[in-house]
Design a protein that fits this description.
single chain, alpha+beta, 5-stranded mixed sheet
């Protein structure tokens, strides 16, 4: 409960906290705070007037914070936040260690969401008291100062004297002074009476590296060696759980080298061993295929909504990610160096730049996708169109949560990737149970065993279950009233006993207004659909449903009719998309969740339902017990030859 309340308070007071912290502390939730700190320090260090940079380490910083002083200062700096902090921290917290109770009287409690903003605001008065001509950058307890070595020594002595009053105790043996090569002897002389470590090469800073080019490249190479080892371990795990391994790569591991790309320049070549390991080891294990060629690798690197898999190529994105980070963080970096106070204008400028970068990336991804199409055969181009449709990639972008049915086993994940790109799944039979030569196109439409009907029924049952949450009198397969006139078009269904999939009250309008829906899941690879664009297929199937039922529902039932048309690949037609948006809106109102969360969850449910149904059409058993199965011609020939040999 305490964590929930604390997070709610931080949402409300975010702007107040950032305003109070200003440019002094970048751990108060500022946009691109860590990246801005790295860019600011590197910019100052590379200036000719800067002789060195001092990277300070503090001992047990969060636990050593002077709690009474912190609460007093925060009450002056940010009164709205001080209320909850005083209520929580004015009494010692009881910590249970090995059955004994230890009172926590100093610092913040580990795991408290308020710990970071509390520490940020508690150190602002200390930062203000550190006078001098140095440029100082603070991110939580990681303090950094840039300038001449003489000024850095003065600043260091002030920090050692004034820090303990605030609960900030420097750890000199772990503090590093990074000087330029020509000032190394001066640094050694001036800091000889301290325990500060001195180097002219460089040191890590907030996950990046500050120092000479040689040290930066060595730092990146060491990182690449570690990440390559992680890729190798992940590939071993992918042999059993490829879906979980893919999620770990795209949602976690790749963010590590993405951050390095955004904070360190000129590292594309150093990242090549990492890319080689991804391409030659991880991707073949994940996808159950051979290493991809250049075209397929570029396709995999695209975001899922553009038909890719989101497996980024670090060598290709390093330069553009660094440029984008510098552009977005520049207002905050300059704000830090100018020692500004009002951060509202800076945040507005950052958001504007971030939006421009996002639009530019979208345009670039679209151009890359169009360029890759020219190198693909027609069937692969069709598969790329299907993979790029809205809703077709939700099974890729969501985490494999077993409790929601969003996890795929090994064979299912390999089949899903094969279906996404129009490849032939592995270990498929030569002939279908119906006697026809087996193919993915045929398997998705073959009525033998009723598997396409199961695909339709799963969507119907899922939709009906959700409708019972927000509508009344929900009925599955309701029988329509007999027609009372015969002036319907020839394409209309006027048969007695005709049924639609779902009927409900109160979906579009009033509580008593009846609405009928009918589900159609078509195979986009079928011969009747393959020659048309996906948009044309959606319109055609919607019009077929409307011509069959719309007039009859309107005139006989006095109700509305909505066709729920979707492709087996996961895309939705226009009216189906509007229908599910309306359903998500009503569910969000009832459940009290954000619309975006409910809509994302609903799209995932539809995506996984269609995906599993398609895999079932390929792998499912089409039982022939009690049914005549036409013998394939090749089998008849073998039997004839065998009989001839016997005779």
């Amino acid at each position: 409960m305490r964590r929930i309340v604390a997070k709610a308070v931080l949402v409300i007071l975010r702007d107040d906290i950032q305003e109070a912290a200003g440019s002094h502390q970048l751990c108060a939730g500022q946009l691109s705070g860590a990246e801005a700190a790295v860019h600011a320090v590197r910019k100052v260090f590379e200036e000719g007037s800067t002789e060195a940079v001092l990277l300070v380490d503090a001992s047990n910083a969060f636990n050593s914070l002077n709690r009474l002083v912190a609460l007093h200062n925060i009450r002056q700096l940010c009164p709205p936040l001080s209320t909850i902090l005083i209520n929580i921290y004015r009494s010692p917290a009881s910590l249970l260690v090995s059955g004994e109770v230890i009172l926590s009287e100093e610092g913040t409690t580990q795991g408290d969401p308020l710990a970071m903003p509390m520490y940020a605001l508690a150190t602002v008065p200390l930062i203000n008291q550190l006078h001098g001509t140095v440029d100082q950058v603070w991110y939580a307890d990681d303090a950094c100062a840039c300038g001449s070595i003489q000024d850095l020594l003065i600043w260091w002595n002030q920090l050692c004297i004034k820090g303990p009053a605030f609960g900030y105790f420097v750890n000199a043996p772990k503090t590093w002074l990074v000087s330029k090569e020509r000032f190394h002897s001066i640094a050694t002389t001036l800091f000889s009476d301290t325990d500060v470590q001195i180097t002219s090469a460089g040191r890590p800073y907030l996950g990046a590296a500050i120092g000479s080019n040689a040290y930066v490249q060595e730092f990146v190479r060491d990182k690449v060696v570690g990440w390559s080892a992680e890729i190798t371990r992940l590939a071993k795990f992918a042999q059993v759980q490829p879906h979980a391994a893919y999620s770990a790569l795209t949602h976690g591991l790749s963010s590590h080298w993405l951050y390095l790309c955004r904070t360190t320049p000129n590292i594309s070549e150093a990242l090549q061993p990492l890319e080689d390991n991804i391409r030659l080891v991880l991707i073949p294990t994940l996808m159950g295929c051979s290493p991809p060629n250049d075209t397929i690798r570029k396709l995999f690197a695209l975001p899922p909504r553009y038909g890719g898999l989101g497996i980024i190529n670090p060598t290709l994105i390093a330069a553009e990610e660094y440029s984008a980070s510098c552009h977005i963080a520049e207002p905050l970096s300059q704000f830090i160096l100018d020692r500004g106070i009002n951060s509202a204008i800076v945040k507005t400028e950052q958001l504007s730049r971030k939006s421009a970068i996002r639009n530019s990336k979208s345009s670039n991804y679209s151009d890359r996708s169009s360029s890759l199409r020219t190198h693909l055969d027609p069937s692969s181009q069709r598969a790329l169109d299907l993979a790029s449709a809205k809703g077709a990639s939700n099974w890729l972008t969501t985490r494999p949560l077993q409790e929601h049915g969003f996890a795929l086993h090994k064979s299912a994940f390999h089949d899903a990737v094969a279906l996404r790109y129009g490849w032939s799944p592995q270990r498929t039979p030569a002939h279908c149970a119906c006697g026809t030569s087996f193919s993915v196109e045929h398997a998705l439409s073959c009525p033998k065993g009723g598997l396409p009907s199961i695909r339709h029924n799963e969507i119907r049952d899922l939709t009906a279950t959700l409708l019972t949450e927000v509508c009344s009198q929900v009925a599955v397969e309701p029988e329509l009233q007999p027609v009372s006139q015969q002036d319907y078009p020839a394409s209309a269904n006027i048969q007695d006993g005709a049924r639609l999939d779902i009927a409900m009250n109160g979906f579009w309008g009033g509580r008593s207004e009846r609405c009928f829906v009918d589900v159609r899941v078509f195979n986009p690879l079928a011969a009747s659909n393959a020659s048309s664009s996906l948009a044309s297929c959606y319109r055609r199937h919607e019009n077929i449903k409307k011509r069959a039922y719309a007039q009859r529902i309107r005139e006989e039932e006095h109700a509305s009719f909505t066709p729920l048309v979707m492709s087996a690949s996961g895309g939705l037609a226009h009216e189906a998309s509007v229908f599910y948006q309306r359903l998500a809106h009503q569910l969000s109102n009832k459940w009290g969740d954000d619309y975006s969360v409910v809509m994302g969850w609903l799209r995932c449910c539809l995506s996984f339902s269609l995906l599993r149904s398609s895999i079932q059409c390929i792998r499912g058993a089409r039982s022939s017990i009690g049914h005549y199965v036409k013998t394939p011609p090749i089998v008849e020939l073998i039997r004839a030859e065998s009989q001839f040999a016997v005779d």
